[in-house]
Amino acid sequence: MSSKSSIKGRGAQINVPNKFFEMSHEMRDDFLEYCAKEGEEADKNKTRYLPIFPKTIVNKVKSPDVGMAYSMNMYQGCEHGCIYCYARNTHEFWGFSAGLDFERRILVKKDAPKLLEAFITRKNWHAYPIVMSGNTDCYQPAEKEFKITRQCLEVFLKYRHPVAIITKNALILRDLDILKELATHNLINVNISITSLSENTRRVLEPRTATIKKRLETVKTLSDNGIPVNVMLAPIIPSINSHEILPMAKAVSEAGALSIGHTIVRLNGAIGEIFTDWIQKTMPNRAEKVLHQIESCHGGSLNNSTYGSRMRGEGQIAKQINDLIHLAKLKYFKNKNMPKLNLELHEQYKDGQLKLF
Q: What region holds the Radical SAM core domain (predicted)?
């Protein structure tokens, strides 16, 4: 496996054209050659944080197979740089590329806590779990500076409202105090993404995420503090991490996880081109094999958008992956279950304080 790529510390190595724009920007070879001769940087590779001001923050999820009904995202774009990330395509709606722009142009919603409070205190709202990071990671590096996720957790705690979190960053442990208090009322569950036990694989797949060691430690710390943890072994990519299913399941179970989930990679929209470019640069010897095996899981295409089959795939390789997940659950999670979140407390706290009568 080669980690040599033209842009260090990033997943995507290109900015693909935005499908909503007629014109596109391209870095020409003659310009790159000129910069090299002059000793200039053709690309400074800096992350920029751009404030935006949406009118709402909680989204109703219409997709029937993603396991959530409501989600919210404090940030659009994600500096973690996971090459396979399905959320990349959403950056095109904001006028950016799904490639490098997704990792380097991070849109920040500083008003998220106020918008959340306004949403869950509506008279006609009845408590239902809201998932933080339905699209992009709420504990990505931007959170160190802006602390928006922590402020939102404080809102959930104030109103005793159920919340779920999806992340692959150990930064979540910064908020252990709030998470523990939410857990005492059965108002929180956490989903930690772990895609490999190999640090070399992690570095090329997810360049700016927490190390595997830190993620396993995060699962253990959360579990030891009474916070229910599900681990997402996702996505499973044939011939990259598919051989690690049973070892990963064993490791996260021993760390205290109560369950696992998985998806099979699908390269929808612009991600097909981004991933293909990336794997040809980082794993040239196995690029064609991996791409063909992904296609075999989706009827000959890199993507399948059909509800019900898009997450689990089809064909022999997909069946082998799904069978291994089933075996892992039987072997390592037989007597474990994630508890259901408490939906009953919120009504009593809707005005910010407990009602006596």
A: 64-301
